[in-house]
Design a protein that fits this description.
four-stranded antiparallel β-sheet, 2 domains, alpha+beta, Aminopeptidase, 9 helices, six-stranded mixed β-sheet, Alpha-Beta Plaits
Length: 364
């Protein structure tokens, strides 16, 4: 089966999180000579397929078959790939069925490898990811079968195919502060405690402030306020409570405890509550690791482009491998239309991505 035919086949599955719409069955049949481990939990399907060629390294390609809802504004059917001028239009073309098609074909076409080749796929990356990739990693850990190296085929390139790979990701810490005051009449401010006035005094010291200086791999961890609300949308009543929400995309230099201490520094004289949740932890793979060196070499051989090493962007399932100390990189097509109407990628990029993955396997 040709690469673009595989890609088109995957794109036709209406695999909106967490429904795979049959994509996993197709993949299992396509890699028919690979062994299979399957986990389904809370409607989420997870598939791990592997083939042992020898006793060397275990190299795993990981990704997701689920996509976000198509939304409105499409010029063609979002689940019927539309080919025009070398581009392919459909939901999931960039994020990330191009990557899945490329590594499936590369693994299928690899007749030898000094170790184990595997693929790990989930139907819940675009959702909460509670029962997705992490479930399979925990299963593999219990079997003593964790991969040594992982390539997550998320779309990473920015302007030109081959211009960026991700060697890590920032973490994500979400917080909600509630400042308690005393509601009253605006004409008698002395009889109330206005939480807006109190919080306004500390905002200049918090909003947009860097919690660390960053380093060679990460930008500084910044305190980003995302929502502030209080009152009843009237002009003659001072509010009794203010709610402020924030997010910190943290590097390895800032922890959840650091964020809590930062908030307390400015709110300690106030009556307040704080709820913190860390949805992702930061990780970074050593730029000199075997995986990074070979990925750079593969990309340069295929494209002639020297990629930059990045940790920018949001979170991905790569974070789960990072938590287990597994060397992990992300590489895929240009990501300029992910989650947008008329999401698209080019046939040339998909074919080049396949060549990169095939060379990686051959030279590893």
């Amino acid at each position: 089966m040709e690469l673009i035919s595989i890609f088109d086949k995957l794109l036709r599955y209406k695999s909106i999180t967490p429904d795979d719409d049959g994509a996993m069955n197709f993949i299992e049949g396509y890699l028919e000579d690979f062994e299979t481990i399957y986990i389904e939990k809370e409607g989420v399907k997870n598939l791990f397929m592997y083939k042992k060629f020898g006793k060397g390294d275990h190299l795993c390609f990981a990704g997701h078959v689920d996509v976000v809802p198509p939304g409105e504004g499409w010029d063609s059917d979002p689940f019927e790939p539309f080919h025009k001028d070398g581009k392919i239009y459909a939901r999931g073309t960039q994020d990330m069925k191009s990557g899945v098609a490329a590594f499936l074909k590369a693994c299928k076409d690899s007749s030898s490898f000094n170790g184990t080749l595997s693929v790990l796929l989930t139907s819940d990356e675009e959702g909460d990811a509670r029962y997705g990739t992490i479930e399979m990693i925990q299963k593999l850990d219990s079997l003593g079968f964790l991969p040594d190296f992982v390539v997550v085929a998320e779309p990473t390139c920015e302007k030109l195919f081959g211009d960026a790979i991700k060697i890590g990701r920032r973490g994500s810490i979400n917080g909600v502060i509630e400042k308690i005051g005393t509601q009253g009449h605006a004409a008698y401010p002395e009889k109330s405690k206005n939480p807006i006035h109190k919080v306004a005094q500390v905002l200049p010291h918090m909003a947009g402030v860097n919690l660390d200086e960053g380093d060679e791999n990460f930008a500084p961890s910044q305190f980003v306020i995302t929502d502030i609300r209080a009152g009843m949308e009237v002009t003659n009543v001072t509010p009794g409570k203010l709610k402020m929400m924030f997010n910190v995309r943290n590097s390895t230099k800032t922890t959840k405890d650091d964020v809590e201490a930062f908030v307390h520094k400015y709110f300690k004289e106030m009556d307040y509550t704080l709820v913190l949740n860390q949805s992702a932890k930061p990780f970074v793979t050593n730029p000199n690791s075997k995986l990074v060196r070979n990925m750079l070499l593969s990309i340069q051989n295929v494209t002639g482009v020297e990629p930059k090493l990045s940790t920018a962007g949001g979170t991905s399932d790569a974070r789960f491998f990072g938590e287990y100390g597994i060397d992990t990189v992300e590489f895929g097509v240009i990501n300029d239309t992910i989650h947008a109407p008329n999401e698209r990628t080019s046939e040339a990029e998909v074919k080049a991505l396949y060549e990169v993955f095939l060379r990686l396997i051959e030279q590893f």
